[in-house]
Amino acid sequence: MKNKILDALYQQKASARKAFAVLIDPDKLNEQALLDTIQLATTSKVDYFFVGGSLVVTDTLDKVVTTIKRTCSIPVVLFPGSPDQITPNADALLYLSLISGRNPELLIGQHVISAPFVRQSGLEIIPVGYMLVDGGTPTTVSYISNTNPIPANKNDIASCTAMAGEMLGLKVIYMDAGSGAQTAIPTAMIQQVAKYIQIPLIIGGGITTAAKAKENCLAGADIIVVGNAVEKDPALIIEIAAAIHSLNK
């Protein structure tokens, strides 16, 4: 199977280029809002759409993905909160192992259940070490996963967890404060994790301004993911994309 998206992530990291992914929760956007978001993302040259959520209760996942694919050329990467959040119409799947927690179901259990369908889907599979970081308030993902996030002041725990994920063979590290986080992941934690791993680092959760997105990139993030903030203010897509891409000049 070709690793088009993963290869692009590694090439991007090798050239020190930063990227912006807009996270779309299928439950939260109606069709017109989705089309408006796609238009803004296309105009702003957003690098990726991530699609998924901790708790998707509607059956619109495939419709959202196919609408994006039909309307623009931005790659669509699934960011699933459960094994049933899969559609073969996307470009790739972040196969998340929750390495910050101790819930065996999210370390390997659900992967065993989903593996046959995931293999048959034909999707590009990207093994990801997923790390929850305390964002100042309980989030949907911390509740659903039944795990405690890494304390925001425990940089050593975060860096050791990321290193362990890399040495276990995971291809990407994704640090997330969670949807609706009050505070973003501290810059010092991002810096320390980035210092000790060589694989791409994705940062999400609690990022509400272009300045914060840029700050996180300067700290070592390779991809910034924003969802809640752009749902509330879609114009932020333009501002955040410009801030991140300004680092690539």
Description:
- It contains 10 helices and 8 strands.
- The chain is α/β, with parallel strands linked by helices and 249 residues long.
- The chain has one domain: FMN-linked oxidoreductases (TIM Barrel), CATH 3.20.20.
- The longest helix has 18 residues, at 104-121.
- It is globular.
- The mean pLDDT is 94.
- Succession of helices and strands: HEHEHEEHEHHEHEHEHH
Look at the structure and name the CATH superfamily: FMN-linked oxidoreductases
Strand order in space, largest sheet: 1-2-3-4-5-6-7-8
Average of per-residue pLDDT values: 94
Helical element count? 10
Shape: globular
Poorly predicted runs of 5 or more residues: none
Largest sheet: 8 strands, parallel, barrel
What is the percent of helical residues? 40-55%
CATH fold-level assignment: TIM Barrel
Work out the count of structural domains: 1
Name the structural class.
alpha/beta
